[in-house]
Amino acid sequence: MLMSQVFERERLNGHYGVTAFVIGNSLSAAPFLLLTSFIPGAIVYFPPGLQDGSQHFFYFALLLYACMLLVESLMMIVASLVPNYLMGIITGAGIQGLMMLGGGFFRLPDDLPPPFWKYPLYYIAFHKYANQGMFKNEFEGMRFDNNQDGDEILRRTWQAEMGYSKWVDLITLFGMAIFYRFLFLVIIKITEKLKPVIVAFLSVPPKQTTQIMAATSATATPLQEQRV
User: Fold this and answer.
1) Run of H or E including 120
2) pTM over 0.85
3) Tens-digit pLDDT profile for residues 109-119
4) pLDDT tens, position by position, 37-86
5) For residue 180, what are the CA distances in angstroms to 37, 106, 108, 224?
6) All residues at 6 or more sequence positions from 55 whose CB lies less than 8 Å from its CB, including other chains
7) Helix intervals (H) in 82-125
8) Contacts made by residues 37-43, CB under 8 angstroms, sequence distance 24+
9) Is the peptide bond before 120 cis (omega within 30 degrees of 0)?
10) Are 130 and 63 in contact, with CB atoms under 8 Å apart?
């Protein structure tokens, strides 16, 4: 919310346009989000004994990075639509809460009710692709002591979609982040054009106020005029 207020002030001063703001904000936030993905990711990845290998950790950190980009982009959209700071946090948390409930983790995909939760929420929630990417990164290609196959666990236990690789899930997340940024740009441009129209429509013309005052003065009685 603070970011949107800074943008409005700088935009009114004529320092930069909407497109420059969106591109500049995305590029300036990228290094910080990358650091907060790799450093905490290294702390939580190795102690539990997840799969060894730089490729698995690199994928894990990139998936965290894509999710952080998505959450930031989603909150930027909410901030552009909800001017109140507290209501913006509540709205953003509510949207993410719905996506988490329909993302296929708390209830498996086949157990989700078809109306709304399975179609369309399950397919538009970025948690679906994040969960499946994490599962595939850990279980795909593994063999366990009881002769269980990792691919079979993914297919039966987690009901993951095995028709494509984990990298497709990662690319989908980055694609959604770009789409959210583009949607944020469109919303700001539309809001910037419609805001003067809405303000002009809601404002009361001065002539109406003058006519009402004149009509009130004309209906005043002589006794009221003397008291005045």
Assistant:
1) strand 119-120
2) no
3) 999 998 899 99
4) 999 999 999 888 888 889 999 999 999 999 999 999 999 899 888 878 88
5) 20, 25, 26, 64
6) none
7) 85-101, 121-124
8) 37/61, 37/62, 37/64, 37/65, 37/68, 38/65, 40/64
9) yes
10) yes
